[in-house]
Amino acid sequence: MSTQNTITLAYVVKGFFASIDKVMLSMTPQSKNGGEISVVQHLAELAQHDDAVYKEHGNPAGLTWAYEVSEMYGEWIAQYVNGNGAFPPDDACTAKLMALAQIPVATVVIEVRGGNVQCVYTGKDAPPIRVVVRDFDNIEKGDPDPINDVPGDLAYEPNTIYLW
Predict the structure, then answer these.
(1) pLDDT digits over 82-95, tens only?
(2) Do residues 94 and 15 both lie within one domain?
């Protein structure tokens, strides 16, 4: 195991055990079948996602990786177990690491001329994007509150960009 892998694992485990609910942990197959050693072995497998993201993308945000990514990743794994009684799937782990490391998953270019959106470009592998523009400068008296007519939680509006 390389030094990077050892440090990654140490901080993933640190974050995990700082946040885990012992009752929820006891319900996982890893805990039932092998106790704490099996849990740490599974965390070592999940820590490989951390190293893979770092190797593939580097650290473009200049974060202190151990503290700001690996430890937070361990805390997130614990929160996932606390809420689900199971460890997260691989794709969820990679997605969370990309978010923690502030690595963009797609580039979107919005071309605006004369205050109007003309074109929206994305990479060839990116999903189609919907753009919603809210013009606060031209809202008339009596119009409903423009902030409140935006869907409740923007995180649940996939592939949507809101501009104000």
Answers:
(1) 999 999 999 899 98
(2) yes
